[in-house]
Amino acid sequence: MGDEFPDTREPRTNTSVAAFLNAFGRGDRDTTFRRSDASILQALNMLNSAFVSSRIHQNNQGSHVATLLLQTADPGVIIYDLFATTLSRPPSDREMAMFLPIFQQQGNRVAAENLQWVLLNKMDFLFNY
Amino acid sequence: MESIIDRRVFFKIAATGVTGCFVSPMRLFAQTITRNSQARILGTAKNCIYVLLPGAPSQIDTFDLRVGSWTPVNFAPDTINGIDWPNGLLPNLGGQLSLNQFSIIRSCQSTALVHPLLQNWNQIARNPTSATGKIAPNIGSVVALEMEPQRRSGQKLPGFVSLNGGGSLAGPGYFSGKYAPFDVAPNAGGIANLSNPEGQAVFASRYNMLMAADAPLRIQPSRFGSAGEEMADFYSFARTMMYDPAITNVFRFSTADQQRYGNNAFGNACVTARNLIAADLGARYIQISLGGWDNHQNIYAANAGIYRPASQLDIGLASLIADLASIPGSGGGTRLDETLIVAKGEFGRTVGNITDRQGRDHYFVHSALIAGGGVRGGRVLGTTTPDAAYVDDPGWSEQRPVYAEDIAATIYSALGINYTTVRHDDPLGRGFEYIPTSTGYVGKPIEELFQ
Question: Which domain holds residue B23?
Answer without folding.
Answer: 1-31
